[in-house]
Structures are given as C-alpha cells and as structure tokens.
Design goal:
Keywords: FAD, Flavoprotein, Oxidoreductase, Proline metabolism. Its cofactor is FAD. This protein has 465 residues and is of the alpha/beta class. It has 2 domains: 351 residues, TIM Barrel; 83 residues, no CATH class. It is built from 16 helices and 11 strands. The strands form 2 sheets. It has an 8-stranded parallel beta barrel with strand order 2-5-6-7-8-9-10-11, surrounded by 8 helices. Helix 4 runs antiparallel to helix 15. The radius of gyration is 22 Å and the shape is globular. The structure holds flavin-adenine dinucleotide. The site of flavin-adenine dinucleotide has 27 residues, from strand 7, helix 12 and strand 10.
C-alpha cells in the first residue's frame, strides 16, 4: 500500500493518469453503454497519447476488417449460420482439419483473430506477441470439447450403478494431459483456464447430479493444481450452464479449500453476474472462506449462456445484470461480509474482473483505487478481456498500468494488471468457441461499433502521421 505522504503527492498525478479518467475520457464521447462511469471532480487531462498505438498494424487492419464485418447484420447472419453448421457437422468436407481450403479460409479470417494457435509453436508465438503489446499476462485454455458416442459411454453391471467404459476413464487422462500441456505454454503469473466438463461423462454426470468429485477427477484436478502452483501460475474454473453450475460451485469450493492456502489464490471460481442468485452465491463463498480460513479467488463475468438458460434464472434486463455485476465487484473490493454474517472477518480474497464492459471496469477500478488512496482495506484486482475483443479497453488498461509503473514501484501500484484471455486448439476444435464469440458480438452491437470507431481512429492517426 502507498504511504500517506506518497499518496498525497501523487494523488492528482495518478488520478490524471488513472483508468477511470483514461477510460471515461474516451467514454464521455460515447452513448448510453458508458453513461454512468464515475469521474472524480478534480481530474485534468494528461498528454494525449493513443493507447492503441501499441497494436501492430497488421493486427489493427485485421481487427478493423473483422470487427466492421461483425457490425453488419447482412454479414453476421449467414456467418453465424455457417459457423453453427461447421461446429456441429460430422462431414469430412466441412471439417476444417480435413478440408485444407476451408482450414486456410478460416485461419485467415476468424481463427487467427480469436485463437492462439493449433500447437505449442503457434501458441508460444501468439503469447509472445501479446506480451510484446504490453499485457501483463495471458490466460490460456484448451478448446477441445469431448464428444462421446452414447453407446460407448456406460455399461451396466446388473447392480444399477453406472459403470463407465475404459474410454471414459481415458478421457479424464486425455483431459488432464491436455490441461498440463496448456500449462506448459504459459509462464509464471499467467492463468490457466480450466473447463472441468472437458473431462467427459464421468465429470459431467457427477457435476449434474451434484455429487462429490469422482476420485479419478479429484486426483487429476489435484495434479493440475499442484503443477500450476509449482510453476508460479494460477488457474480459473470456467463457469458453465446452470444445469451444471451448482455441482461445479461445490467442486470449486472443495478445490479452493484444499489449494488456496496463501495470500494469493491458486484457484479462482467463476461467478456469473447475470444470475438472480449470483450475489447470494458470492455470500455463500465469502462465508465459507471466512469460517474455514482459505483464500477466495473470484473471476467475475456477466454470463455467456443467456440463449440456452432457463430465462427466469437470469436478471430480467441488461440493466439489472449490470447492477448485479457492479454490486458483486463492489462487495468484494469494499470487503463487505453478508448482512447475516457481519461478525465474521472478511477472508483473504482476490478478484479478477473478466469483462468487455468499460463502465463496469471503470467503476470497479475507481473503487479499488479510491480505497487504496484513502488507505482503506481492499483486495487484489486484475482485469482481462478475450483475444480479438474490446481491444480499445484492453489497450487503455495496459497503458494505465505502464504509466503508473513508470511513476511508482510495483508494490505501490493502484491500477490493476491487464490480461488477454485466449484459447488454443486445431481449427476444427475451436469452431464451437468461435461460434460463441460470433453470437456474443451479435448481442453487443453498440460495443462492437465502439471498437470499430476506435480502430478506425487509430488507423487514421497512423495514416496522417
Ligand atoms: C476473460 C473472460 C472470461 C470469460 N469466461 C466466462 C466463463 O467462464 N463463463 C461464462 O459464462 N462466460 C464467460 N465469459 C463471457 C461473459 O460471461 C460475457 O458473455 C461477455 O464477457 C459479455 O459480457 P460483458 O461483461 O463483457 O459486458 P456486456 O457485453 O456489456 O454485457 C453483455 C452481457 O450482459 C448480459 N445480458 C445481455 N442482455 C441481457 C438481458 N436482456 N437481460 C439480462 N442480462 C443480459 C449477458 O450476460 C451478456 O453476455 C468470459 C468473458 C471474459 C472477458
């Protein structure tokens, strides 16, 4: 934390260079999506520097072309239909890993923009490129989604208990090895994104039935957590649809209880702010962490499955989701225990803000920074966006971090680190993931248009010198 005198001397300077100013300065000129960003009254403009100047030109051009296309309904509608077919088709002709022409077409367009690569060499290059841009770290996940023929899934032993085939157990091994391989592609300080459903039916069935983690899964997860800690990395558990999420939360708590022993968590669970029950879920996590003495790691998202969920579980409007998201971030950053457990101490905790929404990022960063500057207790905050999305926000966050670092020592920083989240796998393996990204862009037209404007502005700046 900052000492009082350092804080007073540098308060104005830090605020002028602060994310809330930097982000809000840009956001003031945009419409409703950002209208409620919190601005401090004494903030003055710093020297004008384009934070997107850090993007390589080839990256900028590809991003501009693709993002522009995504704002066009005429393009997006057939593109979505095509991606949906490609992500589910069993035809060799429509399999991008078998059809070379299709593979090349997808690579030149969406794959290279949204995915990290198909093998260690490609992924390492992408990770190095991203870090060269200035991100403080990456989050890497393996996209492979396991599909099993139902006939080879289970066999009965006459007792009524489910007996899984050898193939099901091999899937858990394959998943563990794929996850450990992914870990080797990131470095200390980076995150591993773990999808527990990727381990196949042994995992999915138990999660859905809200049973304890099967032994074979518990052993695999233990090995992954131990390797992650040994490497100096961290991991997060991706959130799923509600049919799985209650079981997944139980497992996540069990894993955090076992592995989050130090100040900084090794394991983060994901909370989806669009759920009406998300605040109560956070309170449950906080209470258990406090009572049992482990460190709580939370990655906060809005939620990606609105089109496939029971709608009544999700907040009625986007505004309600926004409020819920901001409340959860504020509860953690302000270290507020639930009303019925106020007497319990706030546990050791950390928050990862996973969002493309600049207003939410701005609010949370402002709260965090104001608390640090006022010497009020808070928790570690980090931010991240998905590769190929919201680059204007990501670049602002990176620039603010770099400016703050130039002004202060790393230990005294009041701005969060910025990460880029990426997925790797062959083109065919990534089709489901790419389809989800396209669906997300369809639902965020205003933000996508904002990104196009920022990219155009940066291109024009380069052309005109
Ligand atoms: C680094 C990272 C990791 C992620 N990991 C996961 C994950 O593990 N699991 C997961 O589910 N998602 C994950 N997501 C996706 C995330 O949940 C959102 O879908 C996505 O980020 C868009 O939300 P946003 O916060 O960026 O803000 P915005 O784009 O401003 O908000 C869009 C979101 O608001 C909500 N919303 C939209 N319309 C309505 C409505 N009418 N009523 C109620 N709510 C509405 C939806 O959640 C929608 O996705 C991740 C995102 C990031 C950046």
């Amino acid at each position: 934390m900052l000492s009082q005198s350092t804080m007073r001397r540098s308060t104005h300077r830090i605020l002028a260079q602060s994310p809330q100013y930097q982000v809000c300065r840009r956001l003031r000129s945009t419409k409703s999506h950002y209208h409620d960003a919190a601005l401090g009254p004494t903030i003055r403009p710093p020297v004008e520097v384009s934070s997107m100047a850090r993007l390589p030109t080839r990256f900028l051009l590809r991003s501009l072309v693709l993002t522009s296309l995504m704002t066009s309904k005429m393009f997006l509608r057939p593109a979505l239909a095509l991606m949906s077919v490609l992500s589910t088709s069993k035809s060799a002709l429509l399999n991008p890993d078998r059809n070379i022409a299709l593979n090349k077409l997808l690579r030149w367009t969406v794959y290279n923009h949204f995915c990290a690569g198909a093998n260690k060499k490609e992924v390492s290059r992408t990770v190095a490129d991203v870090k060269k841009i200035g991100y403080q770290g990456v989050i890497l996940g393996y996209s492979r989604e396991i599909v099993l023929d139902h006939n080879e899934q289970v066999s009965g032993d006459g007792s009524g208990a489910t007996q899984y085939s050898k193939k099901c157990y091999e899937m858990v091994d394959e998943w563990k090895n794929g996850t450990l391989e992914t870990l080797q592609m990131v470095g200390p300080g980076d995150f591993l994104a773990v999808k527990l459903t990727g381990a196949g039916p042994i995992s999915v069935d138990a999660m859905m039935a809200r049973q304890p983690m099967p032994e074979v899964m518990a052993k695999a997860v233990d090995d992954i957590c131990i390797a992650t800690e040994k490497q100096g990395s961290r991991l997060w558990l991706d959130a799923e649809q509600q049919i799985l999420q209650k079981g997944l939360d139980d497992w996540a708590i069990e894993i955090m209880r076992k592995h989050n022993k130090h100040e900084t968590p090794i394991v983060y669970n994901t909370i989806q702010g669009y759920l009406k029950g998300s605040k109560a879920n956070l309170d449950h996590h906080l209470t258990l962490a406090s009572q049992e003495g482990w460190t709580l790691g939370i990655k906060l998202v809005r939620g990606a499955y609105i089109e496939h969920e029971t709608r009544s579980l999700i907040h009625d409007t986007q505004q309600d989701t926004d409020r819920s998201y901001d409340l959860i971030a504020d509860t953690m950053l302000s270290r507020r225990m639930p009303a019925d457990n106020r007497d319990l101490p706030f546990p050791k905790a950390a928050l990862f803000l996973a969002t493309h929404n600049a207003a939410s990022a701005t609010k949370a960063i402002a709260t965090h920074q104001n608390r640090l500057l006022a010497s009020q207790p808070t928790i570690m905050l980090e931010c991240g966006q998905i590769q190929g999305m919201a680059d204007e926000l990501s670049c602002e966050l990176v620039s603010n971090y770099e400016r703050a670092l130039a002004e202060s020592s790393a230990a005294n920083l009041t701005v969060p680190k910025a990460y880029k989240c990426m997925t790797w796998g062959s083109v065919a393996e990534c089709m489901g993931y790419l389809h989800r990204r396209a669906v997300e862009n369809r639902g965020a037209v205003e933000r996508t248009q904002h990104m196009v404007n920022a990219l155009r502005h940066e291109l024009w700046r380069r052309i005109t010198g």
